[in-house]
Amino acid sequence: MDVQLGWPDLELVRELGDRGSVTAVAEASHRTPSAVSQQLKSLQRRLGIPLVERDGRGLRLTDAGRALADSATGVATALAEADASWRRFLGDVSGTVRLASFFSASELFIPGLVERLALRFPRVRLDTFDEDVSQDGFADLVADYDIVVAHRSDDTEPAPRPNIRVVPLLREPLDVGLPLGHPLAGRAAVEPADLVGEPWTAPPVGFPIERALLALSARAGQPVRVVRRTTHLPLMERLVSRGQCLALLPRYSTLDHADGRFALVPLTGLRAGRHVEALLRPDREARRVVAAVLEELRAEAAQISAGR
Q: What is the band of 155 on the pLDDT scale with cuts at 50, 70, 90?
């Protein structure tokens, strides 16, 4: 059977693969779930082959569906590259870019990024959003944003996702936050064994700092005692400054906050840090305006790394 596929067909399959349910695709495309379901049924009927299958309460693509989704990414990227080529010919860098990042990355990158864009690309509008999820959850956000700033711990590698580009920004070491009156606060560095028996504050399970604390516990040979759980770094800093607990804190994000409030001491005997990366779809990266924002984001990250 000779079946003609159009862009709406390819886009539907890609969105189902990225979002995992008819309801999520309907919300993203401002349609009813019934309309999306009917489009999917019609496409599968024309092709004569299933494109999705049940995965718990959601959907996942079959091999045939994944092949179509990969084709959709190729088509979308080619269209974006053609538009970017034309804009380069016109000398035009303009438009809106939606960037999502976790809280401390927003504080670290966005003020400088806004200043850079104002100087080099004044016709670019940057819309920013806070998304603080576990390190495995960032890849799911690329369907909704042009750029997603994510982090992962030293002990993990990016999960292979062929339709997501991973652009390294920087590696941020984790230091030990100590109250100023703590016996270890004056040390040039501390080892995991020095920290046995201390109370800690840490993010929930699955966040890079929490994974590093587990590695510290393993190296020290004793479990750590976590007395507070939060993703809010300012709260972690305040708990440390008041002498209520210790914390592993990201160096670049915390350094300016520590002076006169708490000590930030490097950790030796254990490689503890987090990798900060930009995640995006290949077709989004091909857009001229997104590439411009990504370029300035990488420049800001390089300056932060060099300056600290």
A: confident
Q: Quote the CA–CA distance of 266 and 255 in Å, as a whole number.
A: 12
Segment 271-287 shows an average pLDDT of 94
**pLDDT at 298 > cutoff 80:** yes
Tell me how far the alpha carbon of residue 151 is from its chain's centroid. Answer: 6
* pLDDT recorded at residue 81: 86
- Which residue intervals of 129-281 are DSSP H helices? 208-220, 233-241, 251-258
Q: What percent of the chain has pLDDT over 90?
A: 70
- The letter for the amino acid at 248 is L
Query: What tokens does 232 get?
Result: 């809010």
**pLDDT of res. 89:** 81
Q: pLDDT at position 79, please?
A: 85
Pairing of strands 273-280, 147-153: antiparallel
Q: What is the largest CA-CA distance in the chain?
A: 78
Domain 92-170+275-307 has CATH 3.40.190.10: yes
> Percent of the chain beyond pLDDT 70?
98
Residue 122 token pair: 């004044």
Bridge partners of 263? 178
The CATH number fitting domain 173-270, selected from 2.40.480.10, 3.40.190.10, 2.40.70.10, 3.20.20.70:
3.40.190.10
Over the stretch 241-259, which tens digit does the pLDDT of each residue have? 999 999 999 999 999 899 9
In the chain, alpha helices (H): 7-19, 22-29, 33-47, 63-90, 103-120, 208-220, 233-241, 251-258, 282-286, 288-307
Query: What pLDDT does residue 2 have?
Result: 65
273 burial level (CB within 10 Å; 0-12, 13-18, 19+): buried
- The CA-based angle 203-165-113, given to 5 degrees, is 65
Q: Tokens 């390190």 sit at which residue?
A: 135
